[in-house]
Amino acid sequence: MNLPVVSLGYLARLRLAQPLKVHSRFQHAMNLMADDGHLLTLLDASCYPNQPDAVRIQLPHGWDWRQMTGEMTGLDSADIWQPEITLVPSGQRPRHYAILAEELSRQSVESELMLLPGGDSAKRQPQICAQDSAEKLTFQVSRLIGFGRGLTPDGDDYLIGYLAALWRWQNAPRIAGHYRLMQEIIASQLTYTNDISAHYLGRTLHGHFSEPLCDLLMLLTTPASNGQICRAAQKVMQFGASSGADCLAGLLHGIRTLQTTL
Asked: Which domain covers residue 171, as residue numbers?
């Protein structure tokens, strides 16, 4: 069956020219792995937003990658998705924390983590601070990598959101050292989670994020309306049963770090 391509992630173009083998299949997504270990994902365009390493495809009703195969068409004419996400000028601070926290608090999510300060004390509380030593940060990351439920565990999604929040401020003198240290520590522990989650964490280490997360990050320095911020947060949280909420919680933790450090 011919499967029309809707859009290509900006990194996916490089993967298509490489030898690929099937890594995993799900109803609306299929992961292919290159020889270097990176994944290329084929996604149902009606279910998923753009990802750096993804090909979004218009799939027929009832399609299931676990049972069906097809040939992609229209690759040469497909839209290339590439976000415009920039570092912030010196002196700018993140905005909209309160409305994002309120939006997250409204969600009923079965995460193994305490997603906001003062939440369920029976859940694991991430404790990361820009002033922490390498030893303390390594311990905290080790408590998050691979921790929790889901195809991408709660702790991994939280770390993606945390690093994403810092990315636009990575050159700020008071943030740069902490950001680099977190990159190094997470990179050293990727083997403690599964292949798919390690792929997304690895991409985060190099500043590659999903379309909803990119859009929200750019809004953090604009005078956007509450409605715009809420809609952007909802798009982030739509991913997975708890992955999006975990990611937003990590992003909020990153904003707290920026607010107390800059």
From this structure: 97-261
